[in-house]
């Protein structure tokens, strides 16, 4: 695996605030259709005590001219190449929805390197071994927009701008295809501790489905359930940040 150039790294990994004296890093992985900027408030709140890095997937915002990546496996391989050299301090991974599955696959790759992450935060997503037959990516544009509005994860004013919609819908559809066609490949559970977080009214993941994350680690497992739906974290930011800070401290010394 070749070391990425600084230009490649900067395309993929965004640092909104400097935190040179931090004792730990948190790598944040966006949801389907999401971008690195979703985690700007997390970086603002946790820095400089924790260095927050956010992944920018191809096909959106300043990378919208690049082709999107079609599978979770390939996306995990690409992100792994970017972060494999971040070994000077403990690394936590936080992924929401699609990002949680990507975080799981990234943790598998890092453990195979012999240096798994300190903790994996899996937010708003059922366990990797659970399965629902979902075909949102096959809907027409109106159907895709209806899905986004139903999850309340995208600004409704943005959804009403047809020109912007034409730019972002291909990337959103690609993300939905990637996560809806994902199947957990056979393999041993992680040794990385897992912290699962979810909303109690999330239509994409029941609490029982989220509990299935416990099967994915031989390490510690904890579950936190918040009032709300798929984007519960937008209204419970302070509590979620406390979970992140406390668990990172517990697992990084």
TrEMBL record:
SMART domains: PKS_TE (SM00824)
Pfam families the record matches: Thioesterase
Every Thioesterase TesA-like domain range: 27-248
InterPro entries per UniProt: AB_hydrolase_fold, TEII, TesA-like, Thioesterase
Top-level taxon: Bacteria
One GO MF term attached to the UniProt entry: hydrolase activity
Claim: Hydrolase is one of the keywords in the record: yes
UniProt keyword annotation of Signal present: no
Record key words, sorted: Hydrolase
Protein name, as recorded: Alpha/beta fold hydrolase
Species lineage: Bacteria, Bacillati, Actinomycetota, Actinomycetes, Kitasatosporales
């Amino acid at each position: 695996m070749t070391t990425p150039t600084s230009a490649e790294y900067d395309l993929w990994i965004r640092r909104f605030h400097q935190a040179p004296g931090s004792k730990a890093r948190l790598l944040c992985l966006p949801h389907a259709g999401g971008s690195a900027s979703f985690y700007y408030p997390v970086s603002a709140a946790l820095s400089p005590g924790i260095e927050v890095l956010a992944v920018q997937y191809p096909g959106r915002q300043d990378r919208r001219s690049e082709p999107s990546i079609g599978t979770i496996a390939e996306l995990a391989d690409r992100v792994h190449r970017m972060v494999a050299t971040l070994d000077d301090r403990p690394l936590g991974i936080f992924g929401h929805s699609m990002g949680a599955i990507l975080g799981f696959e990234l943790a598998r790759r890092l453990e195979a390197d012999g240096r798994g992450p300190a903790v994996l935060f899996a937010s708003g997503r059922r366990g990797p071994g659970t399965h629902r037959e979902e075909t949102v990516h096959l809907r027409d544009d109106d159907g895709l927009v209806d899905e986004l509005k139903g999850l309340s994860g995208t600004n409704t004013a943005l959804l009403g701008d047809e020109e912007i919609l034409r730019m972002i819908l291909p990337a959103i559809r690609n993300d939905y295809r990637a996560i809806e066609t994902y199947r957990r490949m056979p393999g041993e559970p992680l040794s990385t501790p897992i912290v699962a977080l979810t909303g109690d009214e999330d239509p994409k993941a029941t609490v029982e489905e989220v509990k299935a994350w416990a099967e994915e680690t031989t390490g510690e497992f904890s579950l936190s359930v918040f009032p709300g739906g798929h984007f519960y974290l937008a209204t419970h930011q302070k509590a979620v940040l406390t979970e992140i800070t406390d668990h990172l401290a517990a697992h990084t010394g």
